[in-house]
Amino acid sequence: DNAENMYFFSNLALTLNEPEEQVAPTDSRLRPDQRLMESGRWDEANVEKQRLEEKQRAVRRQREAEAVEALEEGKDYEGYIPLWFERKVDAVTGELICVYKGGYWEAKDKQDWSSCPDIF
Description:
A two-stranded antiparallel ribbon has the order 1-2. It is built from four helices and two strands. It starts with 10 loop residues before the first helix and ends in a 10-residue tail after the last helix. α2 runs antiparallel to α3 (42-72). It is mainly α. β1 and β2 form a beta hairpin. InterPro entries: OSBP_sf (IPR037239), Oxysterol-bd (IPR000648). Residues 42-69 form a coiled coil. One of its GO terms (cellular component) is cytosol.
């Protein structure tokens, strides 16, 4: 029903971005710019998107500076390490893939998100 007004998305597609309780604070459904956009507050959403992008750039610059400093000191620098996934080479295809390494569901059960970075 009313598909022409919903970009002809299926019911599943329309609900994929619905907010959910008790998810990690890094869940993309919590992006403040996205929530503003979905409520039709376009100007505020654009300002918020710019703020988030600048925050991401600042974090990247900090990591790059740390990498340079480590290199100058002859130390290893690991950089960003995902919380719940690790990169591995697929044994069949030889491609680099991300594999769940655990921890998310345990954190969700405990509602302990202390290991999550502040990305928003």
